[in-house]
Write a structure and sequence with these properties.
The protein is mainly α. It has one domain. 70% of the residues lie in helices and 0% in strands. The chain contains 13 helices and no strands. Helix 5 packs parallel to helix 10. The longest helix is centred in the middle third of the chain and has 35 residues. 42% of the residues are buried. The C terminus is likely disordered.
């Protein structure tokens, strides 16, 4: 793995540049969908959003203007071929990731009461007239967040830091910023913070091991479909379980704990089957050593 010994002001600028670039690339795009949904209604907004996301991924993956940053954008987006082996284990890891997060939330609210009102606040889809259209809005909302946030956090934020300083710092930074960005949500209780941070860590490791953002986007989207439909908008129902302090250690709790352990195990087994990330090669961008830093830092 190629690393730089850069420290001090230059190293801080590179990290801050990666954080700023990741937030800009991810969060500006993620906020297009709410504007479309409120302005156009679910059916037309969904069509427009799918078109926008297609162009967004195309551009962020190294196509279009500006031409001189195409190689850097391609590297940040982790664009490249995906083998059949990667597809098999990457898809399993994506599903296992989503199940792990939901199982963790279930276990949390078997330990403390579920604050249904706090989770629902700000997520009402009552302005959407029918249940099928509300489901459509949930799916597109999840897809928008999954694609844009992964491109921003695990791509444009994590990848430049990873290339220069290695995966540990890069994953820690992207996961921490991912967690901090969600602290303003009504559902973001103190007890939810480790789950959000852990989700960011898992996605960061998955991006690194798989060498692509595709499986992070798929896992994030599956996770968010459940979050939007069940935990937030509650169009799929409301969590009925009570804390074990009220019910005792009933069999369902052990089943829920077992589901969490199985999902975590499958996730890490899948990671072990994926090839580790390639050695970082700044020469892939230009002939020498510091192209990635300049592209995201104080830049061209």
């Amino acid at each position: 793995m190629a690393k730089s010994d850069d420290g001090g002001p230059h190293g801080a600028l590179l990290i801050l540049g990666a954080i700023g670039g990741g937030l800009l690339v991810g969060m500006i795009a993620a906020n297009v969908w709410p504007l479309l949904l409120l302005g156009l209604g679910a059916p037309l907004a969904s069509v427009c959003e799918l078109g926008f996301l297609s162009l967004y991924v195309w551009w962020a993956s190294g196509h279009g203007w500006p031409a001189r940053w195409r190689a850097a954008r391609r590297d940040f987006a982790r664009a490249g071929p995906i083998s059949a082996r990667q597809w098999a284990w990457g898809l399993l890891a994506a599903v296992a990731f989503a199940v792990t997060v939901h199982a963790a939330i279930v276990l949390l609210f078997r330990l403390i009461p579920f604050p249904a009102a706090a989770f629902h606040a700000g997520y009402s889809f009552s302005f959407i007239p029918t249940l099928p259209l509300q489901w459509l809005a949930c799916v597109v909302s999840a897809l928008s967040a999954g694609v844009c946030e992964e491109m921003g956090f695990r791509g444009y934020m994590q990848r430049p830091i990873e290339t220069r300083y290695g995966p540990v710092l890069a994953i820690a930074v992207s996961a921490t910023l991912f967690m901090l960005l969600h602290l303003n949500k009504s559902w973001s209780l103190m007890a939810m913070t480790p789950i959000v941070w852990g989700a960011g860590l898992m996605l960061g490791v998955l991006a690194r091991r798989s060498r692509t953002l595709v499986f992070c986007m798929i896992g994030h989207t599956i996770m968010d479909i459940g979050l939007f439909a069940y935990w937030w908008t509650q169009i799929a129902g409301t969590f009925p379980q009570r804390p074990i302090s009220e019910t005792g250690l009933e069999p369902s709790f052990f089943l829920e704990a077992g589901a969490f352990l199985v999902a975590v195990t499958l996730f890490f087994v899948s990671l072990s089957r994926l090839k580790p990330g390639p050695a970082d090669r700044p020469s892939a961008l230009v002939g020498g050593g510091h192209a990635t830093g300049s592209a995201v830092g104080v830049g061209d």
